[in-house]
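tool=predict chain=A
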Amino acid sequence: MDDHPSAGGPMSTAQAPQPLDAAENRRRWQALGVGLVAAFMTLLDVSIVNVAVPSIDRALHASPSDLQWVLSGYALTFGLVLVPAGRFGDARGRRNAFVFGISLFTLTSALAGLATSPTWLVAARLLQGAAAGVVNPQVTGLIQQLFRGSERARPFGLLGATIGISTAVGPLLGGLLIAVGGEAHGWRWVFFVNVPVGILAVILGWRLLPTRPEGTPERRRLDPVGVLLLGVGVVLLLLPLVQDQQWETPWKWALIPAGLAVLVVFGLWERSYARHHEPLFDLKLFTFQSYTLGSLIALIYFGGFTAIFFVFTLYLQNGLGYSALVAGLAITPFALGSAAASALGGRVVNRFGRPLVGIGLLAVVIGLTATVVVLRLAPDAPAPWVTAAPLLVAGIGSGLVIAPNQTLTLAQVPVDQAGSGAGMLQTGQRIGAAAGIAAVGSMFFSTLADSRGNWTTAFETSLVLATGIIALALVAALIDILRKG
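tool=predict ok
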């Protein structure tokens, strides 16, 4: 089935946009605005804490394992609850799930900022990640529910911009907060900043978000066995990835095939369960080429995309001695390019389809390759300056990948499965991000050791690996484009 929006499926007459009066149209855009703010907060916390790690270490006397869990525990629980939370929103209404999720996120952000011990902070981060996982599929499901057909391109473009900007701007905002709050307590403001915004999002979310799509039954079974199987499978996959630096035993990698085996059992259970009830995740979504290919591209792309900021921040702060603020500013060109291109990509994706994603991936590969080249040609020049232009190009490309790919991937997903479909897509992104950080991070640290502390060589080598991962996503997109051509 074709995934281009003009080729049937996603633009069928059943989903054709219906005229809305001005008040209804304004209300749905206001609801979307609340959702985007919440998504920005939760995704920001994936990267903003990176620059606060040295301050947390000094303030709480945390061990390397504690610090690893502060960073990776959030990603682990985030990915764990995405699909069940999306299914809950589909079944019981997105407003209830959204308000619960953002309330928990706000509370746990405050608890993290008040932490007096590493154990306290790790526990708060685990709960905070779970709350983020509850919120995010509701935002994507909300777009599916409130917008139809070609209307979805613009809100998905805004969501793509939110994803790109939040990931890239995290180190900059973290650096600013630490600079204002001071080395001793600035890290606490990295968490406290969520509290007033979260309270406002709870109030506005309850007022503006719809309860459930029209025609949705009041009560639907939630497939607890499917929730358990998927949760165990995701945890087994993610644990060795997020603990890569802390668990030195090679036996940790045995958890990955074990996790894949559990996910196979999950698939078999879902197929059997679907004969009589609504499953946690309808495997029939993978019969849509748009969903299958888009999910694969997202998984691979996030494997390279997220790892870039991880190693770049390490390189600038630990290797070259720049402050957290300067390290954040160095990533700003990528964020600006991503924001501008996401807005454009959301508007034109219906016209160009998958080739637009291919162009974006090519631009990212070119921009990152150019970053390596300029560092080698000008080894003594200030890294934040010489990398600005190529990172801008890569950011523009990223903006043409995330938003358009999300629009195309979810175009054919029925509204009553929008939350679970988006949850599975984002679960793939979280797994890809964890795998990418593990692989690229391992390359970074092993090269650093082999080169006797040459931080530039370590960064260039790891960036080449990240670029190669993104090139794999480009290959997947090109195969689809050529096959349709």
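The chain is about 80% helix and 0% strand. Residues 1-16 have pLDDT under 50 and may be disordered.
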